[in-house]
Design brief:
This protein is an all-alpha fold. The protein has helices at residues 2-37, 40-48, 61-71, 83-96, 106-114, 122-138, 141-151, 161-169, 178-186, 191-194, 200-216, 222-231.
């Protein structure tokens, strides 16, 4: 019996190794193909050379905190991918029988924004991992976060944080309040749904989720969040 179980274990281990090897080959091939069209450095430079590119130094702390709490709360602790978040998302989706929660890091989302299309395919997700690794190898966390907010879509034709901040609030990102920052941090998840000019009620609900996450990460107090929810008017 012991020999049989040992044999089964090694067979399963072999299958897992083969599975991940194939996945790695597909991912690397997908990433390499994308780089042949345009190198990673050139893609990053396209973002950073935008007329209204907002560097990390000009992002208010409340907005940075809102983005990290919402999109990737362990962003400054993990590498290009977060195995803990992936495991948590897998468990949550199985438990809820849905695909509501994802495990992508901010770095992976940058890879999706500047290297790949928004199409949800397995090959793209695998290629995303290699792109994220290269981003983490060549850029700091602060630079990657700035790339994220400068390459994300915020609805209403706003493709970066500067345009969104000016478009929705008529002010530069550095002047955003906690209320405004928490609203903008929630939009990129689903711009067509959470844009305050399209669905103010859903935008308000999403903002509340962002504020709750900020409370959980101890960036703000429960009273801060309650005051914003209570006093926000659309």
């Amino acid at each position: 019996m012991k020999k049989f179980l040992l044999k089964v274990f090694f067979i399963m281990l072999f299958i897992i190794i083969i599975f991940f090897s194939i996945g790695a080959l597909i991912g690397y091939s997908t990433y390499s193909k994308a780089l042949k069209e345009k190198p990673l450095l050139e893609r990053v430079e396209e973002v950073t050379s935008k007329e209204h590119y907002t560097p990390y130094s000009e992002l208010p702390k409340v907005y940075v905190d809102a983005v990290v709490a919402t999109e990737d709360r362990r962003f400054y602790e993990h590498g290009s991918i977060d195995f803990i978040a992936i495991a948590r998302a897998f468990y949550t989706n199985i438990r809820n029988k849905d695909l509501d929660e994802g495990g992508s890091t901010i770095t992976q989302q940058v890879a999706k924004n500047i290297v790949f299309s928004q199409e949800q395919t397995l090959t793209r997700k695998l290629g995303e991992i290699f792109a994220a690794y290269e981003l983490e190898k060549n850029y700091s966390k602060d630079e990657i976060l700035a790339l994220y907010v400068n390459s994300s879509y915020f609805g209403d034709g706003y493709y970066c944080i500067y345009d969104a901040s000016m478009g929705y609030y008529e002010k530069e990102p550095k002047d955003l309040t906690l209320s405004e920052a928490s609203m903008l941090a929630g939009i990129p998840n689903a711009p067509s749904i959470y844009s305050p000019s399209v669905n103010p009620d859903l935008a308000h609900q999403r903002q509340k989720q962002v504020l709750d996450k900020m409370v959980n990460e101890r960036y703000i107090t429960k009273n801060d969040a309650d005051d914003i929810v209570k006093n926000t008017v659309y």
